[in-house]
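not sure who needs this but someone in the group chat was asking about Dihydrofolate reductase family protein from Streptomyces enissocaesilis so here u go. i didnt clean anything up, its just raw.
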Amino acid sequence: MRKLTYYVGMSIDGFIAAPDGAYDFYPVSESFLKDFLIGEYPDCLPTHARRHLGVDELENRHFDTMLQGRATYDAALELGITSPYKHLRQYVVSRSIATSPDPDVEILSGDVAAKVRELKREDGLGIYLVGGADLAAQLLEEIDELVLKVYPVVTGSGVPVFSAEFRVFDFALESTRTFDNGTIVLTYSKKR
């Protein structure tokens, strides 16, 4: 069975973005970019970034499907990009977008958790949960793995990793990696 992985960057104090949704304040060193973002998780780079970095031909290592919320998708649309992850099967969860602006992007509404369970039963690589906090909260029961890129910044406020009501979910630490820019990548798997 495939896994749903919430792969996300965050500040030390648990925010994935500024209150306005910006996330361009995270420090990325050359070694972090080469060793981790490109070397380990090239499938999580948007297609336009892969092309810019000259790594568009890299095979997906972890994921063949992605799921993102409407606000996260809006960031791509604002750049004129209707298919931000062309190298993956793309789903956008939205109650406000009725028709997809791109044939490569399927709009989902309704019972998203049921759709995730259906996707998990398929063969293939994993499912990448791009964001955001509301969607991650809706799918907490379905998330099998967390890959948290903890950047060495404190923001004080912003968009939290999860926007959920209090409920405890236990995860086991699988690995820790540190990088020269002070970023720590923590990988957790859900305890069953």
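also The chain has one domain: 4-164. if thats useful
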